[in-house]
Specification:
The chain is an alpha/beta fold. The protein is built from 15 helices and 18 strands. The strands form 5 sheets. A 6-stranded mixed beta sheet has the order 1-5-4-2-3-6, with helices on both faces. The protein has a 5-stranded mixed beta sheet with strand order 8-7-9-10-11, sandwiched between helices. A 3-stranded antiparallel beta sheet has the order 16-18-17. Helix 8 crosses helix 11.
Length: 441
Protein backbone atom coordinates (compact mmCIF):
# COMPACT_ATOMS: atom_id res chain seq x y z
CA UNK A 1 0.00 0.00 0.00
CA UNK A 2 1.63 3.25 -1.15
CA UNK A 3 0.72 6.83 -0.37
CA UNK A 4 -0.75 5.87 3.00
CA UNK A 5 1.18 8.45 5.03
CA UNK A 6 0.94 12.19 4.37
CA UNK A 7 2.97 15.01 5.88
CA UNK A 8 1.62 14.23 9.36
CA UNK A 9 0.74 10.56 9.58
CA UNK A 10 -2.27 8.77 8.12
CA UNK A 11 -5.36 10.92 7.83
CA UNK A 12 -8.82 10.66 6.31
CA UNK A 13 -12.54 10.21 6.90
CA UNK A 14 -13.04 7.95 9.90
CA UNK A 15 -14.72 4.59 9.23
CA UNK A 16 -14.61 5.34 5.51
CA UNK A 17 -10.91 5.68 4.73
CA UNK A 18 -9.42 5.23 8.20
CA UNK A 19 -11.26 2.07 9.24
CA UNK A 20 -10.70 -0.29 12.19
CA UNK A 21 -9.36 -2.84 9.71
CA UNK A 22 -6.77 -0.40 8.37
CA UNK A 23 -5.85 0.64 11.91
CA UNK A 24 -5.16 -2.97 12.88
CA UNK A 25 -3.05 -3.43 9.75
CA UNK A 26 -1.03 -0.26 10.46
CA UNK A 27 -0.41 -1.35 14.05
CA UNK A 28 0.75 -4.81 13.03
CA UNK A 29 3.01 -3.36 10.33
CA UNK A 30 4.48 -0.74 12.70
CA UNK A 31 5.12 -3.45 15.31
CA UNK A 32 7.59 -5.07 12.95
CA UNK A 33 10.12 -2.30 13.70
CA UNK A 34 10.12 -3.15 17.43
CA UNK A 35 11.97 -6.09 18.97
CA UNK A 36 9.78 -8.24 21.19
CA UNK A 37 8.95 -7.85 23.99
CA UNK A 38 8.17 -4.19 23.50
CA UNK A 39 5.83 -1.47 24.70
CA UNK A 40 3.72 1.10 22.89
CA UNK A 41 1.76 4.05 24.28
CA UNK A 42 -1.47 5.17 22.58
CA UNK A 43 -3.15 8.55 23.05
CA UNK A 44 -6.06 10.20 21.28
CA UNK A 45 -7.99 13.43 20.96
CA UNK A 46 -11.71 13.77 21.66
CA UNK A 47 -13.19 12.72 18.30
CA UNK A 48 -16.18 10.39 18.43
CA UNK A 49 -14.31 7.84 16.31
CA UNK A 50 -11.33 7.89 18.69
CA UNK A 51 -12.33 5.04 21.03
CA UNK A 52 -13.21 2.83 18.05
CA UNK A 53 -9.84 3.36 16.39
CA UNK A 54 -8.04 3.15 19.75
CA UNK A 55 -9.52 -0.32 20.30
CA UNK A 56 -8.48 -1.42 16.81
CA UNK A 57 -4.98 0.01 17.08
CA UNK A 58 -4.46 -1.55 20.53
CA UNK A 59 -5.68 -4.92 19.22
CA UNK A 60 -3.27 -4.71 16.30
CA UNK A 61 -0.28 -3.94 18.52
CA UNK A 62 -1.19 -6.60 21.09
CA UNK A 63 -1.72 -9.23 18.40
CA UNK A 64 1.82 -8.48 17.19
CA UNK A 65 3.25 -9.08 20.65
CA UNK A 66 3.54 -5.53 22.03
CA UNK A 67 2.27 -4.47 25.44
CA UNK A 68 -0.06 -1.49 25.06
CA UNK A 69 -0.52 1.39 27.51
CA UNK A 70 -3.58 3.58 26.89
CA UNK A 71 -3.05 7.23 27.82
CA UNK A 72 -6.62 8.21 26.87
CA UNK A 73 -7.48 11.74 25.77
CA UNK A 74 -4.22 13.65 25.84
CA UNK A 75 -2.36 16.16 23.62
CA UNK A 76 -0.18 14.68 20.90
CA UNK A 77 3.09 16.06 22.35
CA UNK A 78 2.31 14.37 25.67
CA UNK A 79 2.90 11.03 23.96
CA UNK A 80 6.38 12.18 22.98
CA UNK A 81 7.08 12.94 26.66
CA UNK A 82 5.49 9.72 27.95
CA UNK A 83 7.44 7.49 25.54
CA UNK A 84 10.68 8.71 27.08
CA UNK A 85 9.33 8.78 30.62
CA UNK A 86 8.04 5.21 30.33
CA UNK A 87 10.99 4.02 28.22
CA UNK A 88 8.53 2.72 25.64
CA UNK A 89 9.57 1.61 22.18
CA UNK A 90 6.82 3.22 20.12
CA UNK A 91 4.00 5.74 20.42
CA UNK A 92 0.79 6.33 18.49
CA UNK A 93 -1.68 9.20 18.55
CA UNK A 94 -5.18 8.94 17.10
CA UNK A 95 -5.97 12.44 15.89
CA UNK A 96 -6.61 14.48 12.77
CA UNK A 97 -5.16 17.59 14.42
CA UNK A 98 -6.97 20.68 13.05
CA UNK A 99 -9.20 18.72 10.63
CA UNK A 100 -13.02 18.56 11.07
CA UNK A 101 -14.70 16.07 13.46
CA UNK A 102 -15.52 13.46 10.83
CA UNK A 103 -11.82 12.96 10.03
CA UNK A 104 -9.28 11.10 12.09
CA UNK A 105 -5.66 10.05 11.79
CA UNK A 106 -2.76 8.05 13.18
CA UNK A 107 0.63 9.58 14.03
CA UNK A 108 3.52 7.31 14.98
CA UNK A 109 6.50 8.19 17.19
CA UNK A 110 9.80 6.37 17.75
CA UNK A 111 11.48 5.64 21.09
CA UNK A 112 13.08 9.12 21.08
CA UNK A 113 9.62 10.71 20.98
CA UNK A 114 10.12 11.88 17.38
CA UNK A 115 7.72 11.32 14.52
CA UNK A 116 8.80 8.52 12.22
CA UNK A 117 10.87 9.50 9.22
CA UNK A 118 9.51 9.20 5.68
CA UNK A 119 11.83 6.23 5.13
CA UNK A 120 10.39 4.44 8.16
CA UNK A 121 6.82 5.20 7.09
CA UNK A 122 7.48 3.78 3.63
CA UNK A 123 8.71 0.52 5.20
CA UNK A 124 5.49 0.32 7.19
CA UNK A 125 3.39 1.07 4.10
CA UNK A 126 4.92 -1.88 2.28
CA UNK A 127 3.87 -4.20 5.10
CA UNK A 128 0.29 -2.96 5.49
CA UNK A 129 -2.08 -5.62 4.18
CA UNK A 130 0.55 -8.35 4.07
CA UNK A 131 0.20 -11.58 6.02
CA UNK A 132 2.61 -11.22 8.91
CA UNK A 133 3.73 -14.24 10.93
CA UNK A 134 1.83 -14.82 14.19
CA UNK A 135 3.54 -14.30 17.53
CA UNK A 136 3.68 -16.87 20.30
CA UNK A 137 2.83 -14.43 23.11
CA UNK A 138 0.31 -11.65 22.60
CA UNK A 139 0.72 -8.34 24.38
CA UNK A 140 -1.39 -6.96 27.20
CA UNK A 141 -3.52 -3.81 27.13
CA UNK A 142 -3.84 -1.56 30.19
CA UNK A 143 -4.52 2.08 31.10
CA UNK A 144 -1.51 4.35 31.67
CA UNK A 145 -2.11 5.78 35.12
CA UNK A 146 -1.97 9.56 35.71
CA UNK A 147 -0.77 10.26 32.16
CA UNK A 148 -2.27 13.77 32.00
CA UNK A 149 -1.05 14.74 35.49
CA UNK A 150 2.48 13.59 34.71
CA UNK A 151 2.50 15.59 31.49
CA UNK A 152 1.23 18.71 33.28
CA UNK A 153 4.01 18.37 35.87
CA UNK A 154 6.55 18.08 33.07
CA UNK A 155 5.26 21.31 31.48
CA UNK A 156 5.47 23.25 34.73
CA UNK A 157 8.96 21.84 35.30
CA UNK A 158 10.26 23.29 32.02
CA UNK A 159 10.29 26.76 33.58
CA UNK A 160 13.90 27.64 34.36
CA UNK A 161 13.40 31.12 35.83
CA UNK A 162 12.56 31.54 39.50
CA UNK A 163 9.47 33.38 40.58
CA UNK A 164 7.38 33.22 37.40
CA UNK A 165 4.06 34.44 38.76
CA UNK A 166 1.12 35.30 36.49
CA UNK A 167 -0.98 36.75 39.32
CA UNK A 168 -2.99 39.70 38.06
CA UNK A 169 -2.88 38.41 34.49
CA UNK A 170 -6.09 37.33 32.74
CA UNK A 171 -5.66 34.78 29.96
CA UNK A 172 -8.42 33.47 27.69
CA UNK A 173 -7.86 29.91 26.48
CA UNK A 174 -9.66 28.20 23.57
CA UNK A 175 -9.04 24.44 23.59
CA UNK A 176 -11.16 23.69 20.48
CA UNK A 177 -13.14 20.96 22.30
CA UNK A 178 -9.96 18.93 21.97
CA UNK A 179 -7.20 17.27 23.94
CA UNK A 180 -5.81 20.30 25.82
CA UNK A 181 -8.98 21.16 27.74
CA UNK A 182 -8.11 19.25 30.89
CA UNK A 183 -4.48 20.39 31.03
CA UNK A 184 -3.83 23.90 29.65
CA UNK A 185 -6.14 25.80 32.07
CA UNK A 186 -4.70 23.83 35.00
CA UNK A 187 -1.10 24.69 34.06
CA UNK A 188 -1.90 28.40 33.67
CA UNK A 189 -3.78 28.53 36.98
CA UNK A 190 -0.87 26.80 38.67
CA UNK A 191 1.29 29.72 37.50
CA UNK A 192 -1.17 32.18 39.04
CA UNK A 193 -3.17 33.39 36.05
CA UNK A 194 -6.89 34.06 36.00
CA UNK A 195 -8.13 31.79 33.20
CA UNK A 196 -11.18 32.32 31.00
CA UNK A 197 -12.04 28.93 29.52
CA UNK A 198 -13.49 28.44 26.03
CA UNK A 199 -14.41 25.11 24.47
CA UNK A 200 -12.59 23.01 27.08
CA UNK A 201 -15.16 20.21 27.17
CA UNK A 202 -14.19 16.88 25.58
CA UNK A 203 -16.66 17.11 22.71
CA UNK A 204 -15.44 15.23 19.65
CA UNK A 205 -18.52 16.16 17.64
CA UNK A 206 -17.49 19.84 17.80
CA UNK A 207 -13.69 19.61 17.75
CA UNK A 208 -12.20 22.50 15.71
CA UNK A 209 -15.66 23.68 14.64
CA UNK A 210 -15.56 27.48 14.54
CA UNK A 211 -12.99 27.53 17.31
CA UNK A 212 -9.36 26.87 18.17
CA UNK A 213 -6.26 27.90 16.26
CA UNK A 214 -7.95 27.75 12.84
CA UNK A 215 -10.87 30.01 13.85
CA UNK A 216 -9.68 32.90 16.00
CA UNK A 217 -12.88 34.97 16.17
CA UNK A 218 -14.00 33.21 19.36
CA UNK A 219 -10.78 33.91 21.24
CA UNK A 220 -10.72 37.52 20.02
CA UNK A 221 -14.23 38.04 21.34
CA UNK A 222 -13.27 36.48 24.69
CA UNK A 223 -10.17 38.68 25.02
CA UNK A 224 -12.21 41.82 24.41
CA UNK A 225 -15.16 40.79 26.61
CA UNK A 226 -12.93 39.89 29.57
CA UNK A 227 -10.32 42.63 29.09
CA UNK A 228 -7.79 39.79 28.93
CA UNK A 229 -4.05 40.32 28.63
CA UNK A 230 -3.66 37.43 26.18
CA UNK A 231 -5.67 34.91 24.18
CA UNK A 232 -4.44 31.39 23.50
CA UNK A 233 -5.94 29.09 20.86
CA UNK A 234 -4.92 25.44 20.45
CA UNK A 235 -5.82 23.01 17.70
CA UNK A 236 -7.63 19.76 18.42
CA UNK A 237 -4.60 17.73 19.48
CA UNK A 238 -2.55 20.52 21.04
CA UNK A 239 0.61 20.36 18.97
CA UNK A 240 0.09 23.86 17.63
CA UNK A 241 -0.97 27.18 19.15
CA UNK A 242 -1.70 30.72 18.02
CA UNK A 243 -1.98 33.77 20.25
CA UNK A 244 -4.15 36.88 20.20
CA UNK A 245 -2.89 40.00 21.94
CA UNK A 246 -4.94 42.44 24.01
CA UNK A 247 -5.76 44.43 20.85
CA UNK A 248 -7.05 41.37 19.00
CA UNK A 249 -4.00 41.04 16.75
CA UNK A 250 -2.74 37.56 15.87
CA UNK A 251 0.68 36.45 17.08
CA UNK A 252 1.56 33.61 14.73
CA UNK A 253 4.30 31.00 14.81
CA UNK A 254 6.81 33.26 13.08
CA UNK A 255 6.49 35.92 15.75
CA UNK A 256 6.65 33.34 18.53
CA UNK A 257 9.84 31.90 17.03
CA UNK A 258 11.24 35.42 16.75
CA UNK A 259 10.45 36.26 20.38
CA UNK A 260 12.09 33.07 21.62
CA UNK A 261 15.12 33.31 19.30
CA UNK A 262 15.99 36.90 20.24
CA UNK A 263 15.68 36.15 23.95
CA UNK A 264 17.68 32.94 23.75
CA UNK A 265 20.36 34.74 21.73
CA UNK A 266 20.52 37.47 24.36
CA UNK A 267 21.00 35.08 27.29
CA UNK A 268 23.39 32.81 25.38
CA UNK A 269 21.21 29.70 25.12
CA UNK A 270 20.75 29.78 21.32
CA UNK A 271 23.80 27.69 20.49
CA UNK A 272 24.28 27.39 17.57
CA UNK A 273 22.77 30.79 16.66
CA UNK A 274 20.17 29.53 14.18
CA UNK A 275 16.54 28.53 13.94
CA UNK A 276 14.82 26.06 11.62
CA UNK A 277 11.57 27.07 9.92
CA UNK A 278 9.72 26.09 6.72
CA UNK A 279 9.32 27.61 3.28
CA UNK A 280 6.17 29.35 4.56
CA UNK A 281 7.91 31.41 7.24
CA UNK A 282 7.95 35.14 6.70
CA UNK A 283 10.86 36.90 5.04
CA UNK A 284 10.54 39.58 7.71
CA UNK A 285 11.39 37.02 10.38
CA UNK A 286 14.50 36.00 8.46
CA UNK A 287 15.61 39.62 8.14
CA UNK A 288 14.94 40.38 11.83
CA UNK A 289 16.93 37.36 12.97
CA UNK A 290 19.74 38.18 10.56
CA UNK A 291 20.17 41.62 12.10
CA UNK A 292 20.87 39.89 15.42
CA UNK A 293 23.33 37.37 14.01
CA UNK A 294 20.86 34.48 13.90
CA UNK A 295 20.68 32.25 10.83
CA UNK A 296 17.46 30.72 9.52
CA UNK A 297 17.19 27.39 7.70
CA UNK A 298 14.04 26.56 5.73
CA UNK A 299 12.60 23.05 5.24
CA UNK A 300 9.54 21.71 3.42
CA UNK A 301 6.28 22.19 5.32
CA UNK A 302 5.73 19.85 8.28
CA UNK A 303 6.97 19.94 11.85
CA UNK A 304 8.59 16.54 11.30
CA UNK A 305 10.83 18.09 8.64
CA UNK A 306 11.69 20.91 11.03
CA UNK A 307 12.45 18.46 13.85
CA UNK A 308 14.75 16.33 11.69
CA UNK A 309 16.66 19.37 10.44
CA UNK A 310 17.04 20.57 14.03
CA UNK A 311 18.62 17.26 15.02
CA UNK A 312 20.98 17.40 12.03
CA UNK A 313 22.07 20.98 12.83
CA UNK A 314 21.93 20.77 16.60
CA UNK A 315 19.39 23.61 16.65
CA UNK A 316 17.61 24.53 19.88
CA UNK A 317 14.59 26.24 18.32
CA UNK A 318 12.41 25.72 15.29
CA UNK A 319 8.85 25.66 14.09
CA UNK A 320 6.17 26.63 11.64
CA UNK A 321 4.17 29.75 10.98
CA UNK A 322 1.03 27.72 11.80
CA UNK A 323 2.11 27.46 15.43
CA UNK A 324 4.08 24.21 15.70
CA UNK A 325 7.04 25.35 17.82
CA UNK A 326 9.84 23.05 19.00
CA UNK A 327 12.07 23.82 21.98
CA UNK A 328 14.47 20.90 21.56
CA UNK A 329 15.91 21.17 25.07
CA UNK A 330 12.48 20.11 26.33
CA UNK A 331 10.73 18.20 23.55
CA UNK A 332 11.55 16.82 20.08
CA UNK A 333 8.14 17.71 18.66
CA UNK A 334 5.76 20.66 18.41
CA UNK A 335 3.97 21.36 21.69
CA UNK A 336 1.36 24.11 22.04
CA UNK A 337 1.18 24.26 25.84
CA UNK A 338 4.95 24.09 26.21
CA UNK A 339 5.28 26.98 23.75
CA UNK A 340 2.91 29.12 25.82
CA UNK A 341 4.74 28.29 29.06
CA UNK A 342 8.13 29.20 27.56
CA UNK A 343 6.86 32.46 26.04
CA UNK A 344 5.33 33.52 29.36
CA UNK A 345 8.64 32.71 31.03
CA UNK A 346 10.47 34.83 28.43
CA UNK A 347 8.08 37.74 29.03
CA UNK A 348 8.73 37.46 32.78
CA UNK A 349 12.51 37.41 32.33
CA UNK A 350 12.35 40.32 29.87
CA UNK A 351 10.23 42.47 32.16
CA UNK A 352 7.84 42.98 29.26
CA UNK A 353 4.71 41.34 27.87
CA UNK A 354 4.19 39.08 24.87
CA UNK A 355 2.34 41.81 22.95
CA UNK A 356 5.29 44.18 23.18
CA UNK A 357 7.79 41.47 22.36
CA UNK A 358 5.81 40.41 19.29
CA UNK A 359 5.83 43.98 17.98
CA UNK A 360 9.62 43.81 17.61
CA UNK A 361 9.30 41.10 14.92
CA UNK A 362 8.46 42.98 11.71
CA UNK A 363 6.75 40.82 9.10
CA UNK A 364 5.99 41.26 5.41
CA UNK A 365 2.36 41.05 4.25
CA UNK A 366 1.31 37.56 3.22
CA UNK A 367 -1.92 36.51 1.51
CA UNK A 368 -3.07 32.89 1.73
CA UNK A 369 -5.75 31.05 -0.24
CA UNK A 370 -6.88 27.42 -0.31
CA UNK A 371 -8.29 25.82 -3.46
CA UNK A 372 -10.17 22.51 -3.13
CA UNK A 373 -8.60 19.91 -5.37
CA UNK A 374 -9.06 16.15 -5.81
CA UNK A 375 -5.43 15.53 -6.73
CA UNK A 376 -3.42 18.41 -5.22
CA UNK A 377 0.01 16.86 -5.78
CA UNK A 378 -0.62 16.39 -9.50
CA UNK A 379 -2.19 19.83 -9.85
CA UNK A 380 0.75 21.55 -8.11
CA UNK A 381 3.13 20.14 -10.70
CA UNK A 382 0.96 20.91 -13.73
CA UNK A 383 2.71 23.11 -16.34
CA UNK A 384 -0.16 25.61 -16.31
CA UNK A 385 0.14 26.07 -12.55
CA UNK A 386 3.89 26.45 -12.72
CA UNK A 387 3.48 29.03 -15.50
CA UNK A 388 1.00 30.96 -13.34
CA UNK A 389 3.52 30.98 -10.48
CA UNK A 390 6.27 32.33 -12.74
CA UNK A 391 3.95 35.06 -14.01
CA UNK A 392 3.02 36.00 -10.43
CA UNK A 393 6.65 36.16 -9.36
CA UNK A 394 7.38 38.46 -12.28
CA UNK A 395 4.56 40.77 -11.14
CA UNK A 396 6.29 41.10 -7.75
CA UNK A 397 9.45 42.30 -9.53
CA UNK A 398 11.81 40.36 -7.31
CA UNK A 399 10.41 41.84 -4.09
CA UNK A 400 8.40 38.91 -2.85
CA UNK A 401 7.70 35.19 -2.96
CA UNK A 402 5.01 32.93 -4.42
CA UNK A 403 4.41 29.40 -3.17
CA UNK A 404 1.81 26.96 -4.47
CA UNK A 405 1.90 23.62 -2.70
CA UNK A 406 -0.34 20.62 -2.07
CA UNK A 407 -1.63 20.13 1.44
CA UNK A 408 -0.35 16.93 3.00
CA UNK A 409 -3.41 16.59 5.23
CA UNK A 410 -6.38 17.78 3.14
CA UNK A 411 -7.44 17.66 -0.57
CA UNK A 412 -6.53 21.28 -1.31
CA UNK A 413 -3.87 23.40 -2.98
CA UNK A 414 -2.41 26.11 -0.76
CA UNK A 415 -1.35 29.45 -2.24
CA UNK A 416 0.87 31.97 -0.48
CA UNK A 417 1.99 35.32 -1.89
CA UNK A 418 4.40 37.47 0.10
CA UNK A 419 5.63 40.96 -0.70
CA UNK A 420 6.09 44.55 0.43
CA UNK A 421 2.53 45.65 -0.39
CA UNK A 422 -0.53 43.74 0.84
CA UNK A 423 -2.78 44.98 -1.94
CA UNK A 424 -0.38 43.77 -4.62
CA UNK A 425 -0.07 40.42 -2.85
CA UNK A 426 -3.86 40.04 -2.80
CA UNK A 427 -4.15 40.88 -6.49
CA UNK A 428 -1.42 38.44 -7.46
CA UNK A 429 -2.92 35.73 -5.23
CA UNK A 430 -6.34 36.19 -6.87
CA UNK A 431 -4.82 35.81 -10.33
CA UNK A 432 -3.16 32.53 -9.35
CA UNK A 433 -6.33 31.26 -7.70
CA UNK A 434 -8.44 32.05 -10.78
CA UNK A 435 -5.92 30.32 -13.02
CA UNK A 436 -5.89 27.19 -10.87
CA UNK A 437 -9.68 27.06 -10.68
CA UNK A 438 -9.91 27.30 -14.49
CA UNK A 439 -7.43 24.43 -14.77
CA UNK A 440 -9.46 22.29 -12.37
CA UNK A 441 -12.81 22.83 -14.10
Amino acid sequence: MTGLFGTDGVRGRANEYLTPELSIAIARAASSRVSKPGRVIIGRDTRTSGPMLEAALAAGFASAGLDVALAGVIPTPAISFLIKDEQAHLGAVISASHNPPEDNGIKLFDRRGMKLSVKEERKIERLVGQDLPPVEVVGGIRPLEAAAARYASFLIGTIDADGVDLSGMTIAVDCAFGATGGIAPHVLRHLGATVVELNTAEDGARINQGCGSTHLDAIRTAVEANDADLGIAFDGDGDRVLLVDRDGETIDGDRMIGIAALHMRKIGSLDPPLVVTTIMSNLGLEETLGRHGIGMIRTPVGDRNVAQAMVERGAKLGGEQSGHIIFSDHSPTGDGILTVVKLLEIAHESGSDITSLAATIELYPQVHRNVPCRAPFEAAGAPQVQAAVREAEAALKGRGRVIVRPSGTQPILRIMVEGEDERTCAEVCSLIEEGIRRLLL
